[in-house]
Design goal:
This protein is an alpha+beta fold. About 30% of the residues lie in helices and about 30% in strands. It has a 5-stranded antiparallel sheet with strand order 1-2-3-5-4, with helices on one face. The structure holds adenosine-5'-triphosphate (ATP) and magnesium ion (MG). It holds the Pfam family HATPase_c_2.
Length: about 130
């Protein structure tokens, strides 16, 4: 069971990447994993905008954070589309393919739910045991 959960929609355009980072920073003030969650949200929000229908005119994506006593769950729900998230090795020429690799390295677990109508890319980070307050 989660101790608390917050979600917020963002417009599917570039300025929302910074807004989504600020949203999680504000929610997770004082949590040890806040920097990692910020990076993960930034990568997942960027992907939602660049690779899913969330980036179309009027599109949006949903950022959710769930706090448990010893871990944080973060997910970005997009509006789907033909392409699916997949792990690449970084391209030899150094262009792209690093975002999900970074997420996979920072998280203890991660994955994708959904289909062409909408996908949630999620990650779990372990935090030291602490008292959870909203
Ligand atoms: N939310 C998503 N919806 C659909 N496809 C996705 C999504 N996220 C990632 N992908 C697919 O998975 C691939 C790998 O994503 P990843 O973030 O690792 O690399 P990238 O976005 O191509 O480059 P980088 O993140 O390094 O700028 C993408 O190129 C894209 O094809
Ligand atoms: Mg990416």
């Amino acid at each position: 069971m989660s101790a608390w959960r917050f979600s917020r929609y963002f417009l599917g355009s570039a300025p929302s990447i910074t807004e989504a980072r600020r949203f999680v920073t504000a929610l997770l003030r004082g949590w040890p994993a806040v920097d990692d969650v910020e990076l993960i949200v930034s990568e997942l929000a960027t992907n939602a905008i660049r690779h899913s229908a969330s980036g179309r005119f009027g599109g949006r994506f949903l950022v959710s954070v769930q706090a448990h006593t010893d871990r944080l769950w973060v997910g970005v729900l997009d509006e789907g589309g033909p392409s699916s998230p997949r792990l690449f090795r970084p391209y030899p020429e150094g262009e792209g393919g690093r975002g999900l690799l970074l997420v996979a390295n920072l998280a203890v677990d991660w994955g994708v739910w959904g289909d062409e109508h909408g996908r949630t890319v999620w990650a779990v980070l372990r935090t030291s045991s602490r008292t959870v307050s909203a």
